[in-house]
Design a protein that fits this description.
Elements (H helix, E strand, L loop, with lengths): L6 H55 L6 H15 L5 H7 E7 L4 E2 L12 E9 L16 E9 L2
Antiparallel strand pairs: 1-2, 1-3, 3-4
Helix pairs in contact: 1-2
């Protein structure tokens, strides 16, 4: 007579093997899921910064806009509306707005008022991703900034 293992004992062994496999695979699956969420949020924030750059460019294009601080205020206001749980000070500290002419010369202070109608302006918004990051500890996106430049003609 052959030495047979009872069916109940076989099931217990299979369950034990499944538990070991799960214990080995679960941390990797969780890490991959968190990395995907973090990367997805990075892409989403990039799109928001692109929109903020366009909002700032539209403000800079208006002839009644005289200072770069008006443009920066418009960009930060847009970000405040999009990230309501973040403080205005945090978003302001994470955001850098710069305005330049098409040839690359910087326009700062009250110099925006002297830019003639029809001239191209470039509004660049640089944003530190850490200010709105949900998941900490995944180091691939640490210290990353998102930068978007929008070009528009002054009206």
């Amino acid at each position: 007579m052959k030495n047979r293992i009872p069916d109940k004992q076989k099931n217990n062994r299979r369950q034990g093997v499944a538990a070991v496999e799960l214990a080995l695979a679960l941390p990797l699956l969780v890490l991959m899921m968190l990395g995907t969420i973090d990367l997805g949020q990075f892409v989403n924030v990039g799109q928001v910064i692109s929109n903020a750059s366009r909002v700032g460019a539209r403000k800079a294009a208006l002839f009644d806009t005289k200072t770069d601080s008006q443009v920066e205020s418009e960009v930060v206001s847009y970000l405040n509306n999009y990230f309501p749980k973040q403080s205005a000070a945090t978003l302001q500290g994470a955001t850098t707005v710069s305005i330049s002419r098409a040839d690359g010369t910087s326009v700062s202070g009250n110099a925006l008022g002297s830019v003639p109608e029809g001239e191209k302006l470039q509004v660049t918004v640089r944003f530190n991703y850490a200010a709105t990051r949900w998941i900490q500890g995944i180091t691939n996106l640490d210290g990353r900034s998102i930068q978007v430049t929008t070009t528009i003609r002054r009206m």
